[in-house]
Specification:
Blueprint: H1 2-12, H2 17-26, E1 30-34, E2 47-57, E3 62-70, E4 85-90, E5 94-99, E6 124-130
Antiparallel strand pairs: 1-2, 1-5, 2-3, 2-6, 3-4
């Protein structure tokens, strides 16, 4: 049964590890579509993210740590402001993720996002890839 669940996860996952690794290592700004986004206010729009890390959450789910600059979101800050903000995205809930084309380069890239913690991520128990700034 465990093997079957693993196969289903691999076959239905909306983004490959190579796309994630490339986006994190090369600091590509990405268009991300998450499951059930269409049910949120502004849900027809993509989430625009700056992925800085890929690893496993404390519950061992593969996740992307990213700074989300626009698009739908349920979470808001303590001031009631939804974006921009840091988000943790489970890869099994991603419908699609692709780098955004740049004007002067092949893909749009980003610099160090605000409040980026270079020492690690307390929401991850293991980090596979991390952007270097």
């Amino acid at each position: 049964m465990k093997l079957f669940k693993t196969l289903i996860t691999l076959l239905t996952e909306g983004v490959s590890n190579s796309v994630i690794k490339d986006a994190v290592i090369n600091k590509h700004t990405c268009d991300l579509r998450y499951l059930d986004d269409e049910k949120l206010p502004g849900g027809g729009q993509p989430r625009i993210i700056e992925p800085v890390a890929y690893g496993y959450s404390l519950k061992n789910n593969p996740v992307i740590r990213a700074y989300q600059t626009s698009g739908p979101s349920l979470k808001v800050s303590k001031d009631g402001i939804p974006l921009p903000a840091w988000r943790l995205f489970r890869t099994d809930r991603i419908k699609s993720m692709k780098p955004i084309k740049g004007d002067d380069s092949l893909f749009l890239t980003f610099g160090e996002p605000p409040l980026y913690d270079t020492t690690g991520d307390k929401s991850m128990n293991r980090m596979m890839y991390n952007s270097k700034f």
